[in-house]
């Protein structure tokens, strides 16, 4: 095996007694729920601050219990099931959307695997479990959650929810490919798919520094995967009334909202694990404090990083407007996927050169040469393309556009022009036509007639 491949030692997992496993599972569930309750209030506070408003300030100190009050209100509201819905799928869809959102946190490390903590006298790791293919498990769980949204839109028996479900499905397909390529870059560089091993490999340098393109790609795709603004097309109230959850109310509607915010926490935790050093203390702290990455302190650094990424979600929502659906698809298929594939090939090349014991200077030289070759080829292609465009014959004039060709008025497409609006007849002309007088066709004839009458 190459010395650059990580040695996965997962022997510390799977030794906990059943009651300790239950305690850790309950902790993971409570962590997600409390983070969601805080994130909802924090989002409303931050957006209100950005828009010069007050925000929630009635329930609890500083309005911190507002999300809890909203949850209680949703549970007590009347539960309505629409008449045309497929009742079994209609009821199961929120459950299918919510449960996978909680499952990914099982393999996220809150602390170092080698530094075990004591809980009721038992030494255990600050992680529920780990797998040699933990990141593939996260991808699989995230992909299952989208079925809840698609089934909710289909089972409602309404047009707008169906369109929202289809949008969510197309959005997931578009952004899951680029997300997988960003993950693959981390796999190649760390030599492992285990989350604890990936964090261990960032002991000297975080992957946000080594793999900045992968980090940027994942940041964009995680916003698209969670259907958050500016990519919240599946629940666009401007053209879909409410999207896939239009026909839902009470606790089922609350489960969709819960799944959205839990997914936000999950993707933030994954981003922290892959690119931000996971539970490791930031650079200034780790240099002068040796105990920063021991004991319970790693959990604090992990939570701070997750909260910063959640603030990024809120910042986007309060700053950027919703994009159009064609812009969403163009970004996914024409920008993110090509960039992620090219970057993946580059990372694989660098990894192969390092495994062959080439030093960093040679690697940098090869990368610079490849970039220059690509720039040169693109310059040559642009030159020949401009010459070909100049040699083309001028295009024929487009056919006239008839806005009433389909029986109802439609706006012109790009490149089309509306026909000129006919000149409105003057009052004198209309009087002459009604009275049986001569129908004049020009201002000159009308002026001549008036002059002769005078």
How would you portray this structure in words?
The chain is an all-alpha fold. It has one domain. Strands 1-2 form a two-stranded antiparallel ribbon. The termini are far apart. The N terminus and C terminus are likely disordered.
- How many strands, what sense, and barrel or not for the largest sheet? 2 strands, antiparallel
The dominant shape is globular
Order of the strands making up the biggest sheet: 1-2
What letter string, H or E per element, gives the SSE order? HHHEEHHHHHHHHHHHHH
Q: First CA to last CA: what distance?
A: 109 Å
The amount of beta strand, in percent, is under 5%
CA radius of gyration is: 30 Å
Instruction: List how many beta strands DSSP finds.
Output: 2
Poorly predicted spans: 1-6, 442-454
Write down the overall mean pLDDT.
83
Q: Based on helices, strands and strand pairing, what is the structural class?
A: mainly alpha
Enzyme class: translocase
Subcellular location: Cell membrane; Membrane
Organism: Streptomyces cellulosae
InterPro entries: NADH_UbQ_OxRdtase_su1/FPO, NADH_UbQ_OxRdtase_su1_CS
Task: Give a concise summary.
It is a multi-pass membrane protein. The chain has helices spanning 18-50, 66-76, 87-103, 134-155, 159-190, 195-200, 207-210, 212-225, 237-240, 250-275, 283-288, 297-319, 325-355, 360-391, 427-434, 443-453; strands spanning 117-119, 122-124.
């Amino acid at each position: 095996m190459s010395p650059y491949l990580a040695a996965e030692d997962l022997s510390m997992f799977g030794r906990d007694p059943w009651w300790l496993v239950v305690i850790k599972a309950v902790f993971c569930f409570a962590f997600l729920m409390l983070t969601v309750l805080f994130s909802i209030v924090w989002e409303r506070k931050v957006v209100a601050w950005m828009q010069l408003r007050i925000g929630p300030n009635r329930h609890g100190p500083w309005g911190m219990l507002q999300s809890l009050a909203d949850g209680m209100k949703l549970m007590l509201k009347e539960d309505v099931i629409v008449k045309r819905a497929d009742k079994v799928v209609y009821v199961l869809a929120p459950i299918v959307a919510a449960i996978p959102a909680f499952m990914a946190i099982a393999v996220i490390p809150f602390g170092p695997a080698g530094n075990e903590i004591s809980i009721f006298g038992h030494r255990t790791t600050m992680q529920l479990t780990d797998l040699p293919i933990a990141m593939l498990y996260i991808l699989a769980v995230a992909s299952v959650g989208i079925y809840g949204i698609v089934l909710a839109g289909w089972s409602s028996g309404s047009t707008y929810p169906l369109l929202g479900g289809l949008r969510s499905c197309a959005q997931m397909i578009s952004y899951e490919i680029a997300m997988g390529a960003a993950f693959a870059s981390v796999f190649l560089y760390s030599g492992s798919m285990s989350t604890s091993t990936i964090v261990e490999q960032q002991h000297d340098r975080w992957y946000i520094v080594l793999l900045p393109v992968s980090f940027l790609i994942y940041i964009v795709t995680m916003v698209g995967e969670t259907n958050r603004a500016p990519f919240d097309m599946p629940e666009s109230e401007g053209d879909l009334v409410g999207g896939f959850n239009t026909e839902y109310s009470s606790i089922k509607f609350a489960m969709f909202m819960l799944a959205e915010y839990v997914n936000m926490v999950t993707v933030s935790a994954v981003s922290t694990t892959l690119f931000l050093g996971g539970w490791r203390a930031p650079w200034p702290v780790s240099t002068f404090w040796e105990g920063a990455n021991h004991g319970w302190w790693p959990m604090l650094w992990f939570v701070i990083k997750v909260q910063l990424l959640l603030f990024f979600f809120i910042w986007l929502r309060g700053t950027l407007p919703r994009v159009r659906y064609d812009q969403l698809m163009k970004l996914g298929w024409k920008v993110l996927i090509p960039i992620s594939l090219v970057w993946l090939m580059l990372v694989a090349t660098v990894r192969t050169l390092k495994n062959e014991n080439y030093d960093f200077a040679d690697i940098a030289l090869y990368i610079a040469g490849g970039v220059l070759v690509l720039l040169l080829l693109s310059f040559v292609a642009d030159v020949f393309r401009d010459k070909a465009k100049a040699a083309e014959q001028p295009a024929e004039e487009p056919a006239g556009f008839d806005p009433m060709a389909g029986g109802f008025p439609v706006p012109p497409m790009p490149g089309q022009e509306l026909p000129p609006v006919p000149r409105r007849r003057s009052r004198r002309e209309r009087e002459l036509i009604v009275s049986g007088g001569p129908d004049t066709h020009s201002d000159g004839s009308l002026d001549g007639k008036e002059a002769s009458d005078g």
